[in-house]
Amino acid sequence: MSVQSRTYAELDGLRAVAAIAVVGTHTAFWAGIYGEGVLGALTHRLEIGVAIFFVLSGFLLGRPWVSRALDSSASAPTRGSVRRYYRKRFFRIFPVYVLTVVAAMVLLPANRDEGVGVWVQNLTLVAHLGDPELPAGLTQMWSLTVEASFYLALPLIGWCLVRVGRGSLSRLMTALGALALLSIGWNIVSWGLDSGLSVALRAQLPSHLGWFVAGIALAALATDADSASPSTLTRRASRLAADRATCWIAAGAVLVLVATPLGGPVGLFQPDLDGALVRHVGYAVVSLLLVAPCVLAPRPTSWLAHPLARHLGHTSFALFCCHLIVIELIVPGLGLTQFEISWPLLLVLVLAISQAVSEVLYRVVERPANRLGHRRSSAAATTRATASTPHH
After folding, report:
1. CB-CB contact of 59 with 291 (8 Å)
2. What sign has the CA pseudo-torsion 276, 280, 283, 289?
3. DSSP 194
4. Which element (helix H / strand E) includes 306?
5. H helix and E strand count, the chain
6. What angle do CA 317, 148, 47 make, to 5 degrees?
7. If you ran DSSP here, which 8-state letter would residue 303 be given?
């Protein structure tokens, strides 16, 4: 089995956990429990779901690139393969995303007076790059803008890693470490500025690149683990990951630490530089401790690999997209008062309704769009292969 064809079933379940965490933090805000001591702080820090998503993207999309970087005889990817990659990424996110934007702009009263410019900026996934205030029901999409920026930048990042790696795990990990430090440095500069430029810089990919890099580093270790002679670093990391109870307990401990005042204030308040760095590094560590056991010591029979957990992972993108619209509609629709709602009740209602909507989006929009993207990519590859075959 090739590195690219190997599947990690538990990652689907982990994606579902990340999506539920994002819904959990948003419903906690609407229920008004952010300020309620330890529980409020922990529910606010469930925003870590975004970091988990980014680490998973770094791992899954970075695997082909680290495979080339660790194979000194591998050839550079062709322009056609990069085009196929972009095509698949487009069909992966844009159909559901565009439908979500239209639904938010049409269904939510707060958005009905928005002009054409706001529509265009949000439909093209660039609104957050210029204005941190996104329309109602779409405020979570800042992270999708960052994700799309990573999609665009990955071929260049991957090309650099292939050039630097040249068959050496140590060189590759050094390069990834440099990218992680770049991300931390970008955060230091952006959070240290006292101007509108600070907000703009924080919205860019480099502010969150460290989380994607963490996933790519895991991909490098997983690829090396499948080699004939894994490195000492890989063997040690795999032994640590095999003790998943210790990894996950440590992840919980770090998350609690980040939920203390060290991670900045609870709520929609901006942390200071120290708090921002604690969250950035802390969320990376927690995500690594959660994901590493699933890729360095996978267990196909674990609860994360259960068919139900995997299905919830498959529908998690649609859940992420639609859940804020559901909140905006059901709170006034049921006569509930924001900040005076039972959080468990709101969480259950939003998850149930959003999951029902997600099932429709997944089956009617997302899955057919993915198939279309794969078919077009396969057809284009076949056409090029045919054209390059000598005719007799």
Report:
1. yes
2. negative
3. -
4. none
5. 17, 0
6. 55
7. G
Return d(Cα 277, Cα 281) in angstroms, integer: 6
| Tens of pLDDT, residues 342-357 | 999 999 999 999 999 9
State the pLDDT confidence band at 329, using cuts at 50, 70 and 90.
Answer: very high
Q: Which residue has the tokens 């490098």?
A: 220
Integer Cα distance of 161 and 68 in angstroms = 9
Region class of 339: left (phi > 0), else alpha (psi between -120 and 50), else beta: left
User: What are the percentages of helix, strand and coil residues in the chain, rounded to 5?
Assistant: 80, 0, 20
Spacing of C-alpha 256 from chain mean position: 21
Question: Distance of alpha carbon 364 from its chain centroid, rounded?
Answer: 23
Beta strands in 86-245 (DSSP E): none
Domain range list for the chain = 10-378
- pTM summary value: 0.93
Query: Alpha-carbon distance 135 to 110, whole Å?
Result: 8
Other C-beta atoms within 10 Å of 157: how many? 20
What does the block give as tokens for 12? 């689907």
Nearest to 377 by CA among 131, 122, 92: 92
